[in-house]
Amino acid sequence: MSSLLLLQSNMLFPKVLTRAFSSTTMVQLRARALIYTQYGEPIDVLKVHSYELPQVGTNQLLLQHLAAPINPSDINQVQGVYPSKPPLTTDLGTDEPAAVGGNEGVFQVLEVGSGVEGYSKGDWVIPADVNYGTWRTHSVADSSKMLKLPKEKLSLNQAATIAVNPCSAYQMLNYYESLKPGDWFIQNAGNSQVGRAAIQIGKKMGLNSISIVRNRDNLQELVDELTELGATHVITEEQNESREFGATIKSWTKGSPIKLGLNAVGGSNCTALARKLANDATLLTYGGMSMKPVIIPTGLLIFKNLNVKGFWVTANIKRIPNSRQDSINEVIKLMDTGAIVDTPNSDNFFELKDSDESLLKTFQTALTNSKKGKQIVLFE
Amino acid sequence: MSSLLLLQSNMLFPKVLTRAFSSTTMVQLRARALIYTQYGEPIDVLKVHSYELPQVGTNQLLLQHLAAPINPSDINQVQGVYPSKPPLTTDLGTDEPAAVGGNEGVFQVLEVGSGVEGYSKGDWVIPADVNYGTWRTHSVADSSKMLKLPKEKLSLNQAATIAVNPCSAYQMLNYYESLKPGDWFIQNAGNSQVGRAAIQIGKKMGLNSISIVRNRDNLQELVDELTELGATHVITEEQNESREFGATIKSWTKGSPIKLGLNAVGGSNCTALARKLANDATLLTYGGMSMKPVIIPTGLLIFKNLNVKGFWVTANIKRIPNSRQDSINEVIKLMDTGAIVDTPNSDNFFELKDSDESLLKTFQTALTNSKKGKQIVLFE
């Protein structure tokens, strides 16, 4: 096991590797996982399960989980209200059937099965599909269930959150309307991770964008920040919902159609957004942060012929062949060239470090904070 | 002009023809039209304009208007709130620019220009496009602007209303989802003319249907009537909006997906209708009788992937080549075989007869009554 020494020289996660191999043999490596045996509020039902990892099979990889985000869908999954969810099983040796929380995250390869090609120790991988259970310290998986990332091109945060937010933004801008340079789109939740990715991807595509954000004391700071990312215009929810402000928007677009709307809010915000759209435009809903439904005046459907649809990156995995791999590849390119920048220090992105005693506590803090912005847990 | 005698022997409209030719020569034939020179409530702004008809040109037809309905869109057009409207012009010799009301109606050919082929005196025609101005007693038009109907196959009411309601039902059932025999659709406004046409066309296509109607004292009579037309199930708005009743509907469909929803109501009725739809189903909105918007819970868009669209038969004329002619042809076949029956005596279908003194009064009565159901004006 001399390669361990090489891996230990990787300066990114020295502690990880020291811990992972402090056991006398590989088979004794223990993992800790954040599991649930019944649906409910994550803070109530999640608990830590410690278990021995299985031997690495011929076609398998031993994986050290490096970092995992908490997405709203992860929370809904634990609550039992999300349509896509992993089965509860006793595969991890739990007394009761259980599932591991989390769907997204980046892992480092610790050991490669003898029959696996194309992977080396130290590679970064992410799950090829949803429902993997990323909220754990280690796992063993068939190599076919993983996608390899170019670790030299991505930050840890980017790698841990590549599959959902930026890929959602990429797919929404590319799979629904045929947008050409100079075309316009409008979105709410402009300051969310999807919103920021859409601004940047749109900029790279030559699109003009209008991003709606919540008003705040330091609004100009946020406007400057999003403009720096590539936003053409940033407006408040109040401006979006003001009839008078419509003239300002028309003076910006100068008659060019706003062909696409991205909605993660719902309610009156979404209705006002829909009114900005051109004839035959598409309104994609990927979230409902206001907890209010999508409300569309009849005339916008009949006379403007709006196409009102939902967007769910998880469903697209099956619905659009290769959508996950294709969009990850495109997003990697955009991150590599700096078209999508890492924003871990923004006011809606928080890193938390797991420590030995407090995996549960770390996640509970992250879950509590997750309304403020994206929480990323780094496993130690 | 011996053919006039032949026409006079047509027993359907003896008075029409007597009047039309009481003038000493054709050029002196006068028409009366219901015009508006400004937008507003039809009852306020409509007035009668009497004018001399032009000579019939080489490629033209002289037309006796027989019957015209009052559609909600006709009213909205006069109000100035309908996106499709005819220009106001002085073509009819009015002092101020004016337009003639009405978009739908059936006309009888009185005279055929020397260069016109395929038309004979006595033929029934309808306008090939919208904004023709059907609320008048006579007109002269290029033959290319008309579509010929097989008068032997249709009642006058059917011919006068063929282009909007049954064609809307036909297009909604055929152009948006690929429905096969045994498939299900659900609609509100089941007792409207579109609703009745959809029931009958759906039955002919082998589809199962659920029609939502307003509760009423004689509900069972209406249920029986719609069932007779071919409705699989007829339910009330209260049943549609009851969570418990969902189980009854599931017991009917036995797991078969409800692939299409037709909405002419909006509000909570439409939301409850949308909840009945299967994954990937289409919800088409063609009206908003409740004056409330279309309200769709976020989850139905994201997780059920509903496609929420509008339907406008007028826009389809341009959007889907030949849609008007194709759907008229199909509807004619269905009427000819009795698959779509004439329902002039139903409680939402009213005929009114124009008389010489009171064209304006007749329309005013029809306009006032038009909330109760379809009004048809027969020109005398």
TrEMBL record, chains A, B:
Q: Which GO terms describe its biological process?
A: aerobic respiration; fatty acid biosynthetic process
List, for all copies, the residue spans of the domain called Enoyl reductase (ER): 41-377
Q: Is the Lipid biosynthesis keyword given for this protein?
A: yes
| EC number(s) recorded for this UniProt protein | 1.3.1.104
UniProtKB keywords: Fatty acid biosynthesis, Fatty acid metabolism, Lipid biosynthesis, Lipid metabolism, Mitochondrion, NADP, Oxidoreductase, Transit peptide
Q: What's its top-level EC category?
A: oxidoreductase
* Record field: catalytic activity: a 2,3-saturated acyl-[ACP] + NADP(+) = a (2E)-enoyl-[ACP] + NADPH + H(+)
> One GO CC annotation, please?
mitochondrion
The record's subcellular locations are:
Mitochondrion
The protein's superkingdom reads Eukaryota
Query: Record's InterPro entries?
Result: ADH-like_C, ADH-like_N, ER, GroES-like_sf, Mito_Enoyl-ACP_Reductase, NAD(P)-bd_dom_sf
Question: What is an example of a GO molecular function annotated in this UniProt entry?
Answer: enoyl-[acyl-carrier-protein] reductase (NADPH) activity
The record's family statement is: Belongs to the zinc-containing alcohol dehydrogenase family. Quinone oxidoreductase subfamily.
Question: Protein name, please?
Answer: enoyl-[acyl-carrier-protein] reductase
Organism phylogeny = Eukaryota, Fungi, Dikarya, Ascomycota, Saccharomycotina
